[in-house]
Design brief:
The structure holds two protein chains of two kinds. Chain A has helices at about 25-30, 35-45, 75-85, 100-110, 120-135; strands at about 5-15, 55-60, 65-70, 100, 135-140. By secondary structure, chain A is an alpha+beta fold. In chain A, the strands form two sheets. A three-stranded antiparallel β-sheet of chain A has the order 1-2-3, with helices on one face. In chain A, strands 4-5 form a two-stranded parallel ribbon. In chain B, the strands form three sheets. Chain B has a seven-stranded mixed β-sheet with strand order 10-9-8-11-12-14-13. Chain B has a four-stranded antiparallel β-sheet with strand order 2-3-1-4, covered by helices on one side. The termini of chain B are far apart. Strand 1 of chain A pairs antiparallel with strand 2 of chain B, so a sheet runs across the interface.
Amino acid sequence: MAKKIQSKFKLIIPAGAANPSPPVGPACGQRGVNIMEFCKAFNEKTKDKAGFKIPVIITVYSDKTFTFETKQPPASDLIMRAANIKKGTDNPILNKVGSISKAKLDEIVDQKIADLNTDDRDMAAKIIAGSCRSMGVEIVD
Amino acid sequence: MNEEYYELIITTDESYTEAVADAAALLCDDGIEIDGNNIIVRSENDLSHLQTQLEEITTPLKIDINFTLSKKANSDWMKQYQASIEPIEAGEFYIFPSWHEPKTGKINITIDPALAFGSGHHATTAGCLEMISNYVKLNDNVIDVGCGSGILGLAAKKKGASSVDLCDTDPLAVESCKENFQINNETYNTIWEGSANNASKEYDVTIANIIADVLVMIAKDLKKITKTGGLLILSGILDKKEALVTEAYNDLKLINRKLKDEWVTLVYQKEIDVK
């Protein structure tokens, strides 16, 4: 059917745990998105990613129907999970807080490449490696 | 749910939005919203510590960033959403969400706006509903091509069609359609994921609320599945694209046209067999 976009916005929310409280309630409710339908569909789609925060882009059409597209968790989340750390460093040059293997880096690249502005795997690997460095996470063989 | 919640709006240059949003998402347990170059964090917990942490990270970077922290009244967001959705009337039909009551003297259809298009609130849906109200007769065989929520097929069935087929290329629409028929205690004949060329019979009325370019692309299929003497109700046509559609269907007889907002609904009759 004919669709005309009324608004588009992005949320980053815990996988499998969307509910009508803030931030989902006000963000969706104020734009006329059926909150329960969104929570139900989002939770179903992300239930296998528990523990991650998932970026989701919601498009609202002029008849108040909507669609949403989930992205992979932020690279920093994936890196912390792989390095088994809770946060990055406050000084990436002096304080290294963890490390990941090249194989783990490759796994993160596989997950994130669709969300990065490149089809070039080497470029994607450089972007993720840069995120690792800025978080104080070393890449080891 | 607390009576109040905290809202922290972080405004920064668009080129830094993603990075700042990622940092905010890492530092707080709650979700965040990104709208243009605004990052909005809403939480029932105090967010002043988050502002401090983000200031510590961003100050050395000397980027232009602004924080606005406020307390807001919490609300029953479901009720607020529900209050924003009004029933609509089109022809004989009364389309209402499940939290409203049906209306006496009307053909009632319950549709909650959800993931599949077709809540009745768009001019194209309303235009089709009016034409269904005028042209679908008792015992007609009807097909709804690009059915979305199934609202138009439902309307045809409630108007007296003996058999309704539906199709959509979007699997979500097919599921939504099945649910809406069940909610409205109606039955369809067949529903499939795919296009009109999978239809195996001819129909008295073919309804297609898609978009002009697709209506042109599938014109041959829509004409083929419509019986000689049958009708095509076409919508989803922006007025500036109407000429494209009328040209593609110029071998049929135009019997009605309705313009609502900038959207056109056309009704054609297939007088003779056309290829």
